[in-house]
Amino acid sequence: PQHVVLYPLVAKSLRNIAAGKDPLEGQRHCCSIAQLHDHYSLGYPDLDELQKNPQPLIFDIEVLKVEEPGSYQQDPWAMTDEEKLQAVPLIHKEGNELYRQGKVQEAAAKYYDAIACLKNLQMKEQPGSPDWIELDQKITPLLLNYCQCKLQCEEYYEVLDHCSSILNKYEDNVKAYFKRGKAHAAVWNVAEAQADFAKVLALDPSLRPVVSRELRSLEARLREKDAEDKIRFKGIFSQ
């Protein structure tokens, strides 16, 4: 066993990863001692003590699982730009398979990872440039898949936000109007839902049977809600 000089800083990065944070959060390009002097603390008392008083270390490593060759997939933050581009179709495919299996939350996480890869690359491009637009067109179907998962998880306001962001850029995206219409209907934004479904029909008349079913469902829910309200408030104004 021997003391590893950079271990406290490495350990801080690993703890950040475990907490879902950026592994380099709070760091700058300098040695570990300078990091400590710059921030006065690594944020963990045990690491601060080890940094100030180096000592031999013994690492006890536990094997959590064994994966098949080629099955390991890096987290998006650890990938190079080229690896991100190569990984996106694979992650997308994994998300689709999970969705088909009914594992909606897991599928949403996969779509989110794929979107994160592309968003990271897009941030390096000039907004509106050909490369930026090409990446955005890859993001859009992933984001719509993500919204479909969120619809099933009843997270309707997130669907409204994402679909609106798509429609601000692509006014003819039928799927975005349809999913936003369903989300509006779910949160009782009746006029907005009707407007979105009307836009769906204007863009693709072949979807009339699907839209009609959604509108009938909304009308049935409205009648049910009105009946419940009448019972709930019966006699309240006659007292």
From TrEMBL:
**Source taxon at top rank:** Eukaryota
Please give the PROSITE patterns that the UniProt record associates with this protein: TPR (PS50005)
Provide the alphabetized UniProt keywords.
Answer: Cytoplasm, Phosphoprotein, Repeat, TPR repeat
User: So where does this one cross the membrane?
Assistant: none
**TPR repeat windows:** 174-207
One Pfam family matching this protein: PPIase_AIP
One annotated GO molecular function is: peptidyl-prolyl cis-trans isomerase activity
The compartments listed are: Cytoplasm
* Ranges where the AIP/AIPL N-terminal FKBP-type PPIase domain occurs: 1-63
Question: InterPro entries, from UniProt?
Answer: AIP/AIPL1/TTC9 (IPR039663), PPIase_AIP (IPR056277), PPIase_dom_sf (IPR046357), TPR-like_helical_dom_sf (IPR011990), TPR_rpt (IPR019734)
GO CC term (a single one): cytoplasm
Free-text function comment from the UniProt entry: May play a positive role in AHR-mediated (aromatic hydrocarbon receptor) signaling, possibly by influencing its receptivity for ligand and/or its nuclear targeting.
Q: Assembly and interactions?
A: Interacts with RET in the pituitary gland; this interaction prevents the formation of the AIP-survivin complex.
This chain belongs to the protein called AH receptor-interacting protein
